[in-house]
Amino acid sequence: MPELSHTARDASSTRRTLILLAVLAFASTFSTAVVFPNIGSFVRDRFVLSDTQASLFAVSYLIPHVVFAFVWGALSDRYGKRKVLLVTGYVVTALFHFLLPFISTYPMLLLVRFGEGAFSVLGFSMVMTIAVDIARKGRYGRVMGVVGASVSLGTTLAFPIGGAIGAQSMVLLCTIGAFILLLCAAAAWLLLEEGKLETVRSFSAALRVLRRQPALSIPYAFTFVDRFTVGFFAVTFPLYVGAQYNMDATASGMLLAGYLLPFSLLIYPFGRLSDRWGGARLLLAGSVFYGVVVMLVGYVPPEWFLAVMLLCGIFAASMYAPSLWFVAHTAPEESRASAMGGFNAAGSLGFAVGPLAGALISDVYGYATAFLAAGITELLCVIVVYPLVARTLRHLPQQTLPTATSLQ
Fold this sequence. Notes:
Elements: H1 2-33, H2 39-47, H3 51-79, H4 83-99, H5 106-134, H6 140-168, H7 170-191, H8 203-207, H9 209-212, H10 217-245, H11 249-277, H12 280-296, H13 305-330, H14 336-365, H15 367-395, H16 404-407
Helix pairs in contact: 1-5, 1-6, 1-7, 2-3, 3-5, 3-14, 4-5, 4-7, 5-6, 5-14, 6-7, 6-11, 6-13, 10-11, 10-13, 10-14, 10-15, 11-13, 12-13, 12-15, 14-15
């Protein structure tokens, strides 16, 4: 009986921690994403820039995600600390976020946005890593699905709400975002327990996690391409509908919510399916359907936009959850933060390159060609990575792959 009671207490503590992580993931993502739907008015129109120049605002935020995600993860694995890094990330991000509307020159705005990106990925990486830490074997998909859905839901609400508030006052919008981040820091400091890692390796060993576990290249490749296409939607799509159909930030934000809402709601169910069936089939099939739908974005009439966005959101969820499953399932226990940092870095690199590529293609060949290129990139990823997926699944020990029987 005492053993049962102890197990029950552990399960209850895990549930509380997961709920807290979900809230932190939602709130922190919302607070930083509210700026994106306002790139047209806050950046392009304000400083009189081309689409390509304006896209650097997103790139300057996301490039440090690439540089620092892996570094923060390795640092956490080296010293076994999650909570302190998480709180630090939130506090410093809040400061940079608050300063954004008060910057009067574009180069300085890019510099401040770079600093915000460097520390926002610290908080994000630690939340995802703690989620992997508390997940039990066979439940990685559903745990990561909960946190991933919270991240996506924060982005979903950020676009329409950020567009509406930003149209009235960017000072108010960034002040609200900074305040939410400080609340996240306080909640993490007061409510989150610092877990104990059984093994802590050297800093350099943590950085070599991908070489020690090549299977991680599968989710890294897919998250790069997936986030590459998301960059088109986050930055190029609002510029497209604004220039082509005279939609403001509120209208484009509502359309993007049509993409992000089903994405948010379906990550958890697809995470459970990944636990039951394995993530490979979902990842490959979802990527094919997603790539085809993305190719249509620039060719459909505006009255079809919402339907296309809903389909994109459904298929994107069927890719994202299995990608998280792959990371959680193949990452060495002592290097989980490094593995998740690498995953975030790969995704951030795609998200950074996506807006820039979308803007460059749009400026030269038009918006329709830009989304056509994004969809083709997704399909090419499936073709290139499929042999590695098949080879990896053949060589992984059978007991590491969850089955329907093992979960009943």
